[in-house]
Specification:
Elements: H1 8-16, H2 20-30, E1 34-39, E2 46-49, H3 53-57, H4 61-64, H5 72-75, H6 81-93, E3 98-105, E4 111-124, E5 127-136, H7 138-165, H8 170-185, E6 189-196, E7 201-208, E8 220-221, H9 225-233, E9 237-239, H10 253-257, E10 262-270, E11 273-282, H11 290-341, H12 348-362, H13 368-378, H14 389-392, H15 400-406, H16 409-417, H17 428-432, H18 453-467, H19 479-488, H20 496-510
Antiparallel strand pairs: 1-2, 1-5, 3-4, 4-5, 6-7, 6-11, 7-8, 9-10, 10-11
Helix pairs in contact: 1-2, 7-8, 7-11, 8-11, 12-13, 12-18, 19-20
Length: 511
């Protein structure tokens, strides 16, 4: 309970001094608000009220005294009466002061917030005499409410910004924005439509407050209906009550279907360019204040920026996809060019790619790792472009000197590809797939896990494909012979763990 100088001392002085009544009554009548004395009987009968009761309640003193025409308890807002009575009775039972905030309804029907401070003294059997002051705090409450609303709206903006920063898709961002629109603007439905320039229409991308969160409104052509007109004119449309509005456009079906009355539609623009429209709907006349419109403008600006950024991101993603496709087509072109030069390995590169990806996935590679694995497999022998034709196409065994030249092709691959940014992570296979687990390979003689995982994976697949296909200098091994050879080389040529994973995969393929 709040502590303050008890006003009952004034009333006590009023009783104790013969000169005091006139002076103190004048004082009380000139204080803001209403001083009072009442009994806590069934009707809380008023025994004294100051002249301030007129400004506070709209009733004259004579109307309130002894509950002549109206009981003060009946002026209290119906939703607050029980709270007030319970709190006062609680204070009386504890012999302490009370301080309450509640609403009253004035004689003209206006609703006001008041602050009441009082204290009770025993009067007669079971009754207390309550004395205190009641003052109007409506302006303070309105200022407090406005501040709280401003804080809530600021938090709503921050929440939307957080969603945008997560990189969610546009539907999630706009859905979050509409959730805040519904909550902060206290409307019953809302929607965002995106402008499709090629079709000259608005496509409803996100809805709230209707029967489903999924778009259920048909696209609207520019200039048609409320949304189309607002978008075409680049001006907001505000209808307090659509049934009483003077309009020359077709009323959307959703108004009748969902009992909607009020409407506000605002075009979403970026640097003068239309990107969409934000709409809000209410089931009662829509008569917001200036702050409401300012907040809608702020949300509309945020929605426009979100749409613009997401469309730019999607366009960038599309460009990246096309660019990556062009890269991969180029790589496949290089691979085919090499096979045309080395006719004995025609089809080799494409055959090893699929099996390499399957083995890599089984070994736990994911996402970008598989992308680089695929590119490395396609380009594994690209360095052979630097080996002279007389060596590449020699039908018989190579001499020691010729082998020295042949073994330079991984180094050629490294020198050519390391300068290409998007291929650097795919270099492990072209540069290292001839390294052996026991360190006997080339070009650097790497050993064990010094050899990159991608190269160790590919090495098994590369040898498998080479063994199971004809070469000019030998016939292809049978599948079982090739598997036996790979198993034999486990721990020498190949990583034993990879061989252990590879063998079951191939055996399942052969069934």
């Amino acid at each position: 309970m709040s502590k303050f100088k008890p006003e009952q001392e004034i009333f006590s002085a009023l009783e104790e001094s013969s000169d005091a009544p006139v002076n103190l009554e004048i004082l009380l009548n000139n204080l803001p608000g209403m001083a009072y004395r009442c009994l806590n009987n069934a009707n809380w009968e008023m025994k004294f009220v100051s002249q301030g009761c007129k400004d506070l309640t709209g009733y004259e003193q004579i109307e309130l005294l002894n509950n002549a025409d109206v009981a003060y308890a009946d002026i209290i807002h119906p939703d607050d009466r029980k709270y007030v009575r319970d709190e006062v009775q609680k204070a009386l039972s504890q012999s302490c002061q009370f301080e309450l905030q509640y609403r009253i309804i004035k004689a003209d029907g206006e609703e006001r917030f008041v602050l009441e401070r009082g204290i009770g003294r025993p009067f007669s059997a079971g009754l207390f005499q309550i004395e205190g002051f009641i003052t109007d705090i409506t302006k303070q409450k309105q200022a407090e409410s406005k501040l709280l609303k401003m804080l809530a709206r600021q938090n709503a903006i921050l929440d939307i910004e957080r969603v945008i920063k997560t990189g969610s898709d546009l539907r999630v961002i706009l859905g979050s924005l509409l959730d805040q629109v519904m909550m902060q603007l206290e409307v019953d439905a809302a929607s965002v439509a995106l402008y499709e320039k090629e079709l000259q229409q608005l496509h409803f991308y996100s809805l709230r407050g209707f029967s489903s969160r999924q778009p259920s409104r048909a696209p609207v052509r520019l200039g048609e209906g409320l949304a189309g007109k607002a978008a075409l004119d680049r001006e907001g449309i505000h209808l307090v009550d659509i049934a009483q509005a003077d309009h020359d456009f077709e009323i959307p079906e959703c108004f009748q279907k969902y009992d909607l009355v009020g409407y506000y539609g605002l075009p979403l623009e970026i640097k003068g360019r239309l990107v969409g429209i934000l709409e809000v709907f209410s089931r009662s006349p829509l008569q917001p204040d200036t702050d409401w419109f300012d907040f809608v403008d702020l949300l509309a600006g945020q929605a426009a920026v979100s749409i613009e950024n997401m469309l730019l991101f999607e366009n960038l993603q599309d460009s990246n996809i096309r660019l990556e496709l062009a890269y991969d087509n180029t790589l496949e072109g290089w691979s085919k060019a090499l096979e045309l030069r080395d006719r004995e390995t025609v089809g080799h590169s494409h055959r090893v790619v699929d099996l390499t990806i399957k083995l890599g996935r089984t070994m736990g590679l994911r996402g970008e790792e598989l992308v680089h694995l695929r590119r490395g497999a396609l380009l594994h022998d690209i360095g052979k472009m630097g080996v002279p034709d007389h060596i590449m196409r020699k039908p018989g065994p190579l001499t020691a000197a010729e082998w020295d030249i042949m073994r330079q092709h991984p180094t050629h691959a490294f020198n050519w590809l390391s300068g290409i940014e998007f291929l650097r992570q795919a270099l492990d296979i072209p540069y290292c797939h001839h390294e052996h687990w026991d360190g006997s390979g080339y070009p650097r003689g790497l050993k064990g896990t010094e050899i990159p995982l991608a190269a160790r994976i590919f090495a098994v697949v590369d040898v498998w494909d080479a063994l199971t296909n004809d070469r000019p200098y030998r016939q292809a091994f049978t599948k079982e012979e090739a598997l036996a050879q790979i198993e034999k080389e486990s721990g020498h040529h190949f990583d034993p763990q990879i061989v252990e994973v590879f063998l079951p995969i191939v055996r399942r393929m052969l069934k």
